[in-house]
UniProtKB/TrEMBL annotation, chain A:
Family: Belongs to the ABC transporter superfamily.
Subcellular location, principal: membrane
InterPro entries for this protein: AAA+_ATPase, ABC_Ni/Peptide_Import, ABC_transporter-like_ATP-bd, ABC_transporter-like_CS, Oligopep_ABC_C, P-loop_NTPase
Protein name per its UniProtKB record: ABC transporter ATP-binding protein
Membrane topology note: Peripheral membrane protein
PANTHER family on file: DIPEPTIDE TRANSPORT ATP-BINDING PROTEIN DPPD, OLIGOPEPTIDE TRANSPORT ATP-BINDING PROTEIN APPD
Keyword ATP-binding: yes
Gene Ontology CC annotation, any one: plasma membrane
Pfam families from the UniProt entry: ABC_tran (PF00005), oligo_HPY (PF08352)
UniProtKB/TrEMBL annotation, chain B:
UniProt lineage: Bacteria, Bacillati, Actinomycetota, Actinomycetes, Streptosporangiales
Identification of the protein by name: ABC transporter ATP-binding protein
Cross-referenced NCBIfam families: oligo_HPY
Bias type Low complexity, positions: 9-28
PANTHER family per record: D,D-DIPEPTIDE TRANSPORT ATP-BINDING PROTEIN DDPF-RELATED (PTHR43776:SF7), TRANSPORT ATP-BINDING PROTEIN (PTHR43776)
Amino acid sequence: MTRKKEKDARDDGELLRIEDLHVDFLTDRGWTNVVAGVSFDVGPGEIVGLVGESGSGKSVTSLSVLRLLPNAYSRTPSGHIWYQGRDLIKMPERELRDVRGNEISMIFQEPMTSLNPAFTIGDQIAEVYRRHKGGSRRAAFARAAEMLDLVGIPDAGSRVKDYPHEFSGGMRQRAMIAMALACEPKLLIADEPATALDVTVQAQIVALLSRLRDETGCGILFITHDLGLVVELADRVVVMYAGEVVETAAALDLYNAPKHPYTAGLLSAMPHLGVRGKELPTIPGRTPEPWRMPEGCRFGPRCGHTSEECVVAAPALRIVEAGRSSRCCRTEQLNLAGSP
Amino acid sequence: MSVKGVEGSGAKAPSSGAPAEASGAPVPDSTTGPLVDVRDVSVVFRKKRTLAAARQVRAVNDVTFHIAEGETFGLVGESGSGKSTTGRALLKLVPTESGSIKVAGHDVTNLRGGSLRRARRSMQMVFQDPYSSLDPSSTVAASIAEPLVVHERLSAKEARSRVNDLIEMVGLRASYAERYPYEFSGGQRQRLAIARAIALNPRFIVCDEAVSALDVSTQNQVINLLERLRAEFRLTYLFIAHDLAIVRHISHRVGVMYLGRIVETGPAERVYTAPAHPYTQALLSAIPDPRRRSGRIVLEGDLPDPARPPVGCPFQTRCGFVMDICKQRVPEHTAVEGGGEVACHLQTTGPTLAGSPLNDLVPTRATSTP
């Protein structure tokens, strides 16, 4: 697998830059903050993995990029999402519609709920293409078949007339990827695209995304809870916990030598093909509820390395080495173990 | 992890026929015969159609395995392989077409009515999704008490102290009993589902993707709990999952299913380090591993339509070693060095492995990517 160096990505300039993003949700308790000052960027042709447990805010962050959260229950009090110099947060809806599915597209976890069961796969891919690129129905349909072929659907010319229920789970996810790539987007956001699939199909999808990045040069923001999967696919990884970014690093560096205790905990809890009978490592406790965030470091109550300074003030995300940052005030004192 | 309430409940746990000695020894003795004995079991689903012949799917096809008391048998395979249906057939939740199933001395295939209900006390199931397997409109105390009320004819009041013990046994506070399922996290809910499953002191539990919906850290907590309960009460598990790493951790022996058939069985250690079936090898290679040195085997295509399985070996359409004989005859089960069996023609034809694992045998058809 080719691993594009972080340096190259920076030289190429940036594609997407999320800057100090805050997102609130309207709950029974009023407006509650769920994403607190998230910043990271994705370069052209770069695969960035966004990792965290459920409730970490990773999906909310990814949905905010294309403003797919419901207006009535969510708001973005501050922050910017820069896409090629334009702020998607402030962009008028009409203009944003030309970006969605065209310059930035998105694939979701459950392909069956993202596909319309009443239309053929080809119709649905062609619809996206015609909306953004125009042209005849016939040309758009040909483009649909071409895209299905690109993502490795055998006999694409005739399968393009199939309905979603005639496709298997892995093929549906391929069809979603075909639809997402039909307009040659510069950025693909993939929210847990392989999670509901079998390991064998998961391997196919990951290999496909990696190949498509190499062929089309699109940047990919890959959201997942599977640290093993992300390290294999991504160039760089952003780890989120309780609405904040806690660590960013090149994928293998993070895997071999994490700089935040939460990342180290996730790595040790990853299922390994180890010996049976030993008790499996766990992170004690659970993710805090958004309306009951702990004082100081948000990971503090679950961390095995806390000292007084961790409770006094919330640590800031800071650069600890070239190209890596950590939100832990004790990073330098800790010698955290990487994946076994 | 909390081990409160262990003494109190440990004393009465084996009362329903289980041996009084809960030694917790990891390796079960084979003198008494297996607790679960499954022979040549097939499950067939039929779907009637108006203008065509009924669609018939052999979801489980001549499956044979056994599980010794205190042992954990892991069953892995892709979705559609029949692993869940096998688990359900063992508890007679789906009807079997042929074959015999014996669980804890009961001949499950021939039980019905009252005797089936009585037999169900000794065999329980933990499902994948604790959101849908706990009744959202009753308190968790009521859900856990229900089997006690039905089978032991306890009054709700009498069941209450047992419920508190059970909740503490799975590492939660007894004060949680009056809460409703929506007030718990996924991991806590799965603990409650486990509390309900062990309420009647069963001897055999089918865990069907019991940890698949949980975050890694929570997943490990639930696995540790299952292991502790197994040692304490000498439980026997059939552990069904698609996550191979988890299955390896918890299982003594493993079975690999493909298209309704068991293609390989053996001690977990042997199956994982020296797979003998090309499908097992491909499954293992699909596990994400950033430090992988050898190339990954990416299987092409999908599982064939189970209503129209290929003639001969079920794996022939995706196998890198496919030979002519694979398209003609279903391979027999043959013994493998290091324990277990495999159903693959490579053992007897072509390279004639005769019990050796696959190791570095080079595929005849390219399926690998670098």
